[in-house]
Amino acid sequence: MDQIFLSEYKDLLERKTKIEKELQTLVRGYISNKTINGKTYRYLQNRVNGNLTSKYLKNTEADMVAEQISRRKEYEKELPKLTARISELEQAARLIGKNTSRRLMLLRLSIGMDSLTPEEKKHSISFASAMNAVEGIPVSEQTAQDITAWQNGNEPFFKIFEATLKRYGFSAGV
Asked: Would you state the pLDDT for residue 32?
């Protein structure tokens, strides 16, 4: 039961993260058709800083823009449902117990880390190393090996995060 619960939560968080990331790249607005001298022209219209803007779309790009607008609408409709279900699971976890609630928190904190690009992982590790140096906290050899395994795609971040917390004496809720 606990594994199914955690699996659903993880899947929902991953889907929500994927949608939020993709929404940042999708076109906003709508397509309008204007007929001039009997010929139809398509325009992307949207608001920028409160002003309505209009951009002519070539025939080759109009279908792609229409598909992006359609996908944006689907995602914007799905996102509140995902958020509501995530909240329901978090409420249930609090009722089930502290351990389950902690595991959900760890999942929430670590979600998205595995989908980082190699360059983003490198920056993440550099930042973490800098923070360790500032705080004067040395990284254990095992943690360094685990981070390298994550960076190379051999281990999921959640597993390393959880193991590191245990290694340093924090209860991960298991």
From this structure: 95
